[in-house]
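Please decode residue identities from the backbone states below.
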């Protein structure tokens, strides 16, 4: 019985998702208005001209080498921890 109810709930959620995906709210709309089409074409041409006027080095994003940090080596971390322990021990023995 539990499997059957889970199957029914899953099917209903899939159907609800499909119905929601088919709504036209916020989606792509089609217009036959010539003034809207002309406005879109003008904006597209302006963007194309703006991209052509940009120098090549500014239009391509730069790759940051700093994004790829190398992890600290284990022996370096151990050495630092051991040095701190030795320093604390020498200070305590005095």
């Amino acid at each position: 019985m539990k499997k059957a109810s889970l199957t029914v709930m899953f099917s209903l959620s899939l159907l609800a998702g499909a119905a929601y995906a088919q709504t036209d709210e916020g989606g792509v709309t089609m217009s036959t208005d010539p003034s809207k089409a002309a406005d879109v074409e003008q904006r597209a041409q302006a963007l194309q001209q703006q991209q052509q006027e940009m120098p090549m080095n500014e239009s391509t994003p730069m790759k940051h080498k700093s994004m790829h940090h190398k992890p600290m080596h284990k022996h370096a971390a151990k050495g630092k921890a051991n040095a701190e322990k030795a320093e604390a021990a020498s200070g305590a023995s005095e």
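Observation: The longest helix spans residues 2-21.
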